[in-house]
Amino acid sequence: MREAMFIKKNAERWKEYQHEQTDNPDVTAERFVNLIDDLSYAKTFYPKSKVTRWINGIAAGIYQSIYQNRKEKYSRIFQFWKYELPLLFKKYHRILLFTTVLFLLFIAIGVFSSIYDPEFVRGILGDNYVDMTEDNIAKGDPFGVYKSDNPFTMFVTIAFNNIRVAFLAFIGGFTLGYFTIRVLWSNGIMLGAFQYIFFSKGLGIKSILVIWIHGTIEISSIVIAATAGLILANGILFPGTFSRMVSFRRGAKDAAKVLICLVPFFIVAAFFESYVTHLMSQTYDTDQNGGLPVWVSLLILAASLAFVIWYFIILPIRLHQKGYYIQKDGIINRLKEDHA
Q1: Domain interval for residue 54
Q2: pTM of the model
Q3: CA separation (Å) from 34 to 14, 41, 66, 135?
């Protein structure tokens, strides 16, 4: 084919590639492949022609837009929290559901065991803790345990302890999930026995208004940390079409992202427990005036629960429905446009 005919046949398409950019990855890939074919032909038959340099320039521009000079609308951190992490949870919603149901089952076992065996609570929480709690209840200060230490000391201690529990739940995935489930078991049984103490004393509603100020985020985070451990175990046990090593690496990478994202949640939970729960406990101390009004507790409880449900369940589903997906390089793209 003569050069003039080659240019006439393809010039309009090259101009379109050069001046009309697209965000569709499939279209970009198709353009790049077509340009490489044209460039190979031009280098073979017209190696010193200007048209060869023109095609090469267009191809180079597309290559750079893919691999080097990609302009992102949002910063990487903002994109991670707004898109990548929720989409990651959509991928593992079944594991999250399984972990939640399992934890609720362990809580129920703790409650019913405490009902039918009065000594069960002491066996789980220890005689000293139960005696202290019962003594506080008798003195009219049922939640005195939350104001026994310096708030900042409590904050640091609680934050590190929560992160430690989350890390144990995560590394339990290396044992095929055995120790992860053990962490869920111990915390679920303990929570069930702990709540039983207050409900058995007629303080159930008050305990929810005080304890779950921080407990909503704290317990949700423990469940999510256990989910990370089971994601890791799932990558080992069920490789699917991947080799077991590739599946393990993918699972470990996703689980690590889940674990890291929980750090700010545990810090917020520790802050609530050390400062807000500390003040709320004074509301039900018969020897003190002050504390926080009940509506503050209700507001924090409702906001915490709504956020957990929205961010980890509703938002992932909505992003998935709108066609968002994660590419291999972590960049977020869409399969379809939102016409709503």
Answers
A1: 3-67
A2: 0.75
A3: 10, 11, 16, 80
